[in-house]
Amino acid sequence: VQLVESGGGLVQPGGSLRLSCAASGSIFSINGMGWYRQAPGKERELVVCITRNGDTNYADSVKGRFTISRDNGKNTLYLQMNSLKPEDTAVYYCKTAGGDWGQGIQVTVSS
Question: Residue 34: enclosing H or E segment and its boundaries?
Fold first, then answer.
């Protein structure tokens, strides 16, 4: 499955962005998908993942601010990011449980 992220960019602290991850094929049968991020000089980390049944697991740093969702009909994974902070600045990647990665998209939170 090929994954393409979109929706990143520059936003002020406190602002919002919605990331999308479009898959080249059906995601209906993919059990797990998730969003990861990598900030400069840091290791890639899990932001949130979601199972086919809708169970989610959020990193403590984004709980209450970020929301993951998946639209199996559109073969798309989403990440709604609210109340963004400068420390959320990173390249964001989507990933399937099978190990497919998107190319990543930059999110910069700065005034």
Answer: strand 32-38
